[in-house]
Amino acid sequence: MDEEGAGGAVEQAPAAPDARGREERRERALGVWTSVVVLVLAATAFLVFVAQNTDEVAVEWTVWSVGVSLAAVVFGSMLLGAVGALAAVTAWRLRRHRRLREREELRRLRGGG
């Protein structure tokens, strides 16, 4: 119901959320819960992997050698691979962005836009 405020203005009651808004919130909540479940499953799988791979292995490179658990070696290798992939993708995207910017500047200088 509308009520007249102190300054003579009409105040309206807050509108009830429509069905579309409820559906969007439901989808967002489902996405969050899906992410939580996937994260818990991945963490559990990682902990099982670490628990099953506690054997120590020798890692040798050039002049040094160190004993490390197998899980640490696999995890470290995975981390190095992810960092390398991220660096490669970042370099590719920066190069592509620079080419697109140069192309847009060329188009602008030629009077095409």
**C-alpha Rg (nearest Å):** 29 Å
The largest β sheet comes out as:
2 strands, antiparallel
Strand content: 5-15%
The total count of strands amounts to 4
The neighbouring-strand order within the major sheet is: 1-2
| Helix content estimate | 55-70%
Query: Which consecutive residue ranges, at least 5 long each, have pLDDT under 50?
Result: none
Q: Which of globular, elongated, flat, extended, rod-shaped describes the shape?
A: flat
- Gap between N and C termini: 53 Å
- Mean pLDDT reading: 84
Secondary structure tally, helices = 2
Order of helices and strands: EEHEEH
Class by SSE composition: alpha+beta
Fold and architecture overview:
The protein is an alpha+beta fold and 113 residues long. The protein has a domain of 45 residues. The protein is built from two helices and four strands; from the N terminus they run E-E-H-E-E-H. Strands 1-2 form a two-stranded antiparallel sheet. The chain has a two-stranded antiparallel sheet with strand order 3-4. A hairpin with a 5-residue loop joins strand 1 and strand 2. The longest helix has 40 residues. The chain is flat. The relative contact order is 0.05. The model has no long low-confidence stretch (mean pLDDT 84).
Outline of this structure?
The chain has 113 residues and is of the alpha+beta class. 65% of the residues lie in helices and 14% in strands.
Annotation keywords:
single chain; 113 residues; alpha+beta; two-stranded antiparallel sheet
Which secondary structure elements does this structure contain, and how are they paired or packed?
Layout: E1 3-4, E2 10-11, H1 19-52, E3 56-61, E4 64-69, H2 70-109
Antiparallel strand pairs: 1-2, 3-4
